[in-house]
Structures are given as structure tokens and as C-alpha cells.
Amino acid sequence: MKLYITVAGILLVILNGLLLIPSTNAYTFQIAAIGFVLAVLILVLSFVDGSKKTVVPDVAPSPQVSVVPPPTPEPAPENTAEAEIVAFFALLQEKGRLVDFLMEDLASYEDAEIGAAARVVHDGCKQVLQEHFKIRPISVAEEGSQITVPAGFAADEYRLVGKLSGDPPFTGKLVHKGWKTDLVKLPRLVDARRLPAIAPAEVELV
Prior knowledge:
By secondary structure, the protein is mainly α. It has three domains: 3-51; 79-134 and 180-198; 139-177, no CATH class. 42% of the residues lie in helices and 9% in strands. The protein has five helices and four strands. The strands form two sheets. The protein has a two-stranded antiparallel ribbon with strand order 1-4. Strands 2-3 form a two-stranded antiparallel ribbon. The two termini are 98 Å apart.
């Protein structure tokens, strides 16, 4: 409670007490006027004081919500296609020593030695191709025979050489039967953020 309200209340009590004393009857009007002014003053001051107060609503505190940050996504693998190609070359190297054969300088070798090495390369690389590709010829005709290339042929399956005129179908001699695959099963890598080695360096410990 404010001090001025207490003081004003005491004054009002005193004034009301004076009205009860017979000797102050001649001053009844003045005492009543002072009391009225004090009452009005208390009323005004109470409104002013109330307007200065900020009413804080009784709101229950919001429950604490634990915000869990989303997990950091794993970095997307880089060079996935390139890494799988390198891994396939690693298979050709492992089974058929293809990279060794191609990177070797053959000038110092005899034809018979090269032929013997080529047989090893052929057998090993053929095995890898059969395991990871479903390879079949585009044309089943014998090479050197006459075939007809139908209208609407796939441009990547036929290469037309020689004199070309008119519209398909075309008739000509089969020079090469071509190859295609209906299945590709390249090695899958868990971590492709770097290119794997084609073949590890072998070290014999002593």
C-alpha cells in the first residue's frame, strides 16, 4: 500500500472524529469539505497508480521442448561411375593381366612370346566379360554373307559403309556381326569417394 493512501486515511479518520466533538460543530462544513477533497484525491491517485501497473496474465510456462538437430547427411559418393569402371579394370587385370599386357613395351619380345601372353589375356578377360556382361552378336549371320538392314534400324547397332543411296531397307555384305549386351553387372563399391587402385603394388618382405 502506498504511503499517501495511509496518510490520507489517517486524516479522514481524524476529520470524522472532529465531527463527533460538540465544540467543532461550528466547523462542520469546513471539516466535511476537507474530508471530501481528501476522498477525491485518494480516488484520483488510486486510478493513476493503477494505470502505471502492468498486468501480467497468469500463463502457465511453456513446456521445454528439446530440439534434436537432424542428422548430418553422409556426403554423397563422388566419382561413382569412374570408380566402378576402375574396379572393372581391376578384374580384367586380376583375371587376364590385361593392364600388364597393354602397358608393356612388346618391342623386345618375340611373336611367339606375345602370342603365349595373349592367350592368357584372352582367357582371363573373356571370363570377366561373361561374368559381368550378357554379350551377344547383333547379327547372327555369317560374316561375309548378304544381309538386309531393315527400316527403322538403330543407328548405334549398324554402321553403313560404302555407297549409300535411297531409303532403307538396305542390302549389303556383313563385314562384322557387331556386339551388344543386355546386362551390365559392374562391381559395386561402398566407398567411392576416391578411385580405387587397379592393381596393388606387391611387396615381398624379407
